[in-house]
Specification:
Layout (H helix, E strand, L loop, with lengths): L1 H20 L1 E17 L28 H15 L2 H4 L15 H5 L10 E2 L16 E2 L6 E20 L7 E6 L3 E4 L17 E7 L10 E18 L6 E7 L14 H5 L5 H8 L17 H20 L13 E3 L26 E19 L1 H28 L9 H5 L17 H7 L5 E5 L9 E5 L15
Parallel strand pairs: 10-11
Antiparallel strand pairs: 1-3, 1-11, 2-9, 4-8, 4-11, 5-6, 6-7, 7-8, 8-9, 12-13
Length: 485
């Protein structure tokens, strides 16, 4: 009984602490619908190869080469992305925080897809991304929301290269691109806006190192380029930590892989960059110096890195003025026709004050979800259970004495020192007259064998009388319902 009483007593402070700790302030995410905008590389009118793609508002013919100032601007942005730490550490975002598009080819060979064709993005490296410059997305940049999620469409160039023993069978015309890497001009033309039956793969030859004439000590790569269309699922735990979570082949109708969405000559004849050949060989150490002894990577690696450079410069051409995410009416053109159909020629309207059509980006929209944090009361299950158990036990323990006093007791409860007050000069106890000088403790020792009872000393009367007397017949037990004085 003592252990039980101690246990019950200990529940009191536990219950008191539980009442304070069972509820605290917390946050709850409320899911909301949203619409995001993102840049897609489209068939640009200035390289459409047709005089029909002319801006009637400004009178500019788009079928003209890039001017020098524009090339310098594009190359500077490209170089900023190339030397960024995010390029060589496998980060899912570029130097401006834009999400990089994964190369689905790298996952199709190593990861199992689910029943919907999705590949989970995991353990990403530099080679897992199609470009080191990502896609600007507008609408997921509010710090008041978390857990953004959306899906976007993307397209990129995919290269298939094989090393050949000699380049003598190829005709070179010293075309330069990205660090004086020499290309032949024996390539298919008209791979954009051409009838589907006339499309053919674009092929070229890469020679490295670039500072030597054609000879047996050079590396020759014969490459074929194609277009890959994918759907990417974007996840953003916070507005500044977005990444590609899953990727699959685009479910939209797509043109043939041989179709090029930009004029090839426009893409390759850009400003030279001495770091591009460095990236091709040693992408993680652009500060170093490559020599003739620096080994040339395997053809598969060359294809990946070269396609990343191509896609990055192509991305810069699309997003020159929105590279930092500034979407507005002068830098974007919303394309409501979300389709990859290359036969649907895209026409745009340019305002007179926009002098350079390259400042425009083609934009698609996508449905998204986002969560906002709302302050709420948060219940802690452990403390709630502790409070419930403590309250139930303590309330039950407090009700038991009331029940006993009301229904089980036959008389009043008394508490006194029996050895002194109850036995001294008591007419109902026959005790010797000696020993009155003893204190209560000593007297109790002498009376240890004395059995007494608190009961009825006038059992024969109509009203009983309560007193303490010797047990064994001199004092009757109390009866429920009888009146006592």
């Amino acid at each position: 009984m003592g252990l039980g009483l101690v246990t019950i007593w200990m529940l009191s402070p536990v219950g008191g602490q539980s009442s304070f700790r069972q509820i605290s302030f917390g946050s709850s995410g409320i899911l909301e619908d949203a619409v995001v905008s993102y840049v897609v590389p489209g068939p640009h009118p200035w390289t459409a190869g047709t005089k029909e793609a002319t801006n009637t508002t400004s009178g500019r013919d788009f079928d003209t080469p890039l001017n020098g100032n524009l090339e310098t601007s594009l190359t500077n942005i490209y170089m900023a992305g190339l030397i960024s730490p995010t390029t060589k550490d496998g980060s899912p975002r570029d130097a401006w925080g834009h999400v990089k598009v994964p190369r689905i080819e790298s996952y199709e060979k190593t990861v199992m897809n689910d029943h919907e064709g999705w590949y989970k993005i995991q353990n990403s490296t530099v080679e897992n991304f199609s470009s080191f410059i990502g896609i600007p997305i507008s609408g997921i940049d509010s710090p008041g929301f978390i857990d953004y999620a959306t899906r976007i469409e993307a397209v990129y160039f995919n290269l298939d290269c094989s090393e050949v023993s000699s380049g003598q069978q190829f005709l070179f015309n010293a075309s330069s691109w990205l660090g004086d890497l020499r290309w032949n001009e024996n390539m298919k033309e008209g791979a954009h806006w051409s009838p589907e039956e006339d499309l053919a793969p674009v092929t070229f030859v890469l020679v490295t190192p670039a500072d030597k004439p054609v000879g047996p000590d050079l590396s020759y790569f014969n490459c074929t380029i194609s277009s890959t269309y994918v759907e990417v699922e974007i996840a953003c735990p916070t507005y500044s930590t977005c990444f590609a979570d899953r990727v699959r082949r685009s479910r939209l109708p797509v043109p043939p892989a041989e179709y090029m969405r930009i004029d090839w000559e426009t893409l390759i004849k850009s400003n030279s960059s001495p770091l591009s050949e460095q990236y091709l060989k040693v992408p993680k150490d652009l500060s170093g110096t490559i020599t003739d002894e620096t080994p040339v990577p395997h053809a598969d690696t060359v294809a990946i890195r070269l396609s990343q450079m191509l896609n990055s410069y192509w991305a810069v051409m699309n997003i020159k003025n929105v590279i930092i995410g500034s979407f507005n009416v002068q830098t974007t053109v919303v394309d409501r026709n979300i389709t990859w159909d290359h036969q649907a020629k895209w026409q745009i309207e340019v305002k007179p004050e926009v002098l350079d059509v390259l400042s425009l980006a083609r934009v698609w929209t996508s449905k998204a979800t986002k969560s906002s944090n709302v302050e709420v009361f948060q219940a802690h299950v452990g403390w709630v259970l502790a409070l419930i158990v403590s309250s139930v036990v303590l309330i039950t323990a407090s009700v038991i004495p009331f029940f006993i006093r009301t229904y089980l007791l036959r008389g009043p409860e008394i508490l006194m020192n029996f050895s002194s007050l109850a036995t001294r000069d008591n007419p109902y106890l026959r005790l010797p007259a000696t020993g009155t000088y003893l204190d209560a403790a000593d007297r109790s020792r002498y009376l240890k064998d004395l059995r007494i009872r608190f009961g009825d000393v006038e059992e024969g009367d109509e009203t009983g009388r309560l007193a303490i007397g010797r047990a064994g017949g001199e004092v009757a037990s109390l009866r429920r319902g009888r009146q006592y004085a």
